[in-house]
User: Fold this.
Amino acid sequence: MFVTAIVVFALAALALLIGIVNKANANRSSYGGDSDTANAVGNGGIWGAIGLGLLGLVFLFFATFYQNGVGEAKVVVNSIDKDIVGTIETPGSGFKDPLNDFVDFDLFSQQLTFAGGGDGAPSYTGGSVNGKEITVNVGGVSGGSTRANVDLVATYSLGTEQIEKIYSEFRSQERFTEQVIQKQVLSIARQVPANYSAVEFRGTERGNAEEAIRKSLNEKLKQYGVEFTTVTIQDVRYPDSVETALTQIEEANQNAQKAEADKRTAEVNAEKALIEAQGAANAAIEKARGEAEANKLLSQSLTPDLIALRKAELLVEASKAGGYIIDNGDGDLLLDTRK
Assistant:
């Protein structure tokens, strides 16, 4: 943009020179068609110079004015020898030396997607990548190893501390993504699955495999200020023969888990029934014990004096009712209220 502004200013100077020369020629000639023509050319040259000058100012403004948005960083480099002059990391705007250029870096989360087939080359947009599925070797169903096609999505971000280093080595974020980020993701994503069986990698251990990939990437790329926040294995596809074997294993595991669950349920129900039976038995025992204790206390309370007192009370009641008491000789009293 700065070079364009210089060219436009040069054209403006040339137009002004032509205008001045023709105006001078017109003034030296007091009459004739040549005088009018020179005057017209001179005026046109001057107005053209003014227009080009204004256009040059516009180009100069855009060559020196900059804006840095949120989540962006700029490496300031000399436009001639490409040496680093400094960095701009905070959001804002201002003016720069027209001889300096900016190399932009996106600090927001970048996404790497490797999914599906196809023979096309990966596409790069800044720090993002879209590529095809990753072919890996996983621990086999019965030893050895088996191949699998994996769909993987990972997100990462750049820190501002190392962007000068990245520029010095790779000159742009896109080239850094292609030559370093992508290669490390593919390399580590192909190493980690070998530590798991085919069943584990697609099932119970998938989360651990994702975390192992993430940690390895952060360890490898921390020198560049790269931090991976998520690694997600979205799908794992095996050859048909392996899929058949895995399906049988998974069904067997599911049946075993169901049998174990049913067994546990039966044990729980039996334990519950036993507890209920024990509770009912204990309740019956306590009830019988209470009744026996009550009878014992009642028996102990029937002393001879109390019996004699009760007989006297019965006599009083019988006399009031107009009846009489019959003693049957066994110590029992019969109340006869017949008159």
User: Anything to note?
Assistant: DSSP finds eight helices and 13 strands in the chain. Helices lie at 2-28, 33-64, 163-170, 173-191, 198-202, 206-221, 240-301, 304-321. The chain has five domains: 2-65, 67-106, 113-238, 251-301, 304-336. Residues 85 and 102 are 10 Å apart (CA to CA).
